[in-house]
Amino acid sequence: MPSMGFVQQLATGAMMTIQVAVCAYLLALAIGTFFALITLRPTLLARIIWLPYASIFTGVPSLLVGFLFYYGGSQIVAGLLSPFGIGQRIEITPFMAAVAALGMVYGAYLADLIRSAIQNVPHGQFEAARVLLVPRSAIWLKVILPQMLRLALPGMTNMWIVVLKDTALISLIGLKEIMAYAKLASGVTKEPFVYYMLAACFFLMMTWLTYFVARRVETWAARGFHPVVTQGASHAL
């Protein structure tokens, strides 16, 4: 039987895992949306910013990025703030390093996903909205965004699951999330199977909950959408 004290620690670690995953995913979503919008029309400035960013953060493992942010984050922040005359040293915590690492890495992947979804929205939707003199902000919020969400939601759901599972790697930089507590409990009680199975059950439960919510969101996003079904030659009479 697992010790209730260690089970409570696992629950604490599970909450930390959820907090890191949510914050990292929101950061990745903001970064991905920004780069998706500026690269819709590839300008020289967009390429200068996007290509190095995508090359670095899609080519380097997220764990290595976490190590760089944790051990060198203070120097990076100080270097960015020094031109503005700010010399105060900011200490980077494991939580901050984990959120920044996962957010920066998966922001690059979400940028490609969101940009592809926007490009797959029929161009006639833009033209019809302009003909009706719909304001530009309303075009994006009320016409393009709902259709983009319907197209991008499956990929965004999978990306959330990947971010959630990658929080297990970040325990190596000192973050006390569920895998760190499972390792601690396993070492003390000499029952690794029990505590690692509890951690596995947590991730499986979160995955199931994600798919349950995603199905509801997909139903909401697809409201009013009636795809046209074309008959092939085998159905023609």
Structure characterization notes:
This protein is mostly helical. The chain has one domain: MetI-like fold (Orthogonal Bundle). The chain is built from eight helices and no strands. It has helices spanning 4-38, 44-59, 62-81, 94-119, 123-131, 136-166, 178-189, 192-221. The longest helix is centred in the N-terminal third of the chain and has 35 residues, at 4-38. It is flat.
Produce a short descriptive summary.
25% of the residues are buried. With 237 residues, the protein is mainly alpha-helical. Helix content is 76%, strand content 0%.
Which terms summarize this structure?
single chain; 0% strand; mainly alpha; MetI-like fold; 8 helices; 237 residues
Distance between the termini: 68 Å
Q: How many strands, which pairing sense, and closed or not: the largest β-sheet?
A: none
Task: Identify the overall geometry.
Answer: flat
CATH architecture field: Orthogonal Bundle
Task: Annotate the secondary structure layout.
Blueprint: H1 4-38, H2 44-59, H3 62-81, H4 94-119, H5 123-131, H6 136-166, H7 178-189, H8 192-221
Helix pairs in contact: 1-4, 1-6, 1-7, 2-4, 3-4, 4-6, 5-6, 6-8, 7-8
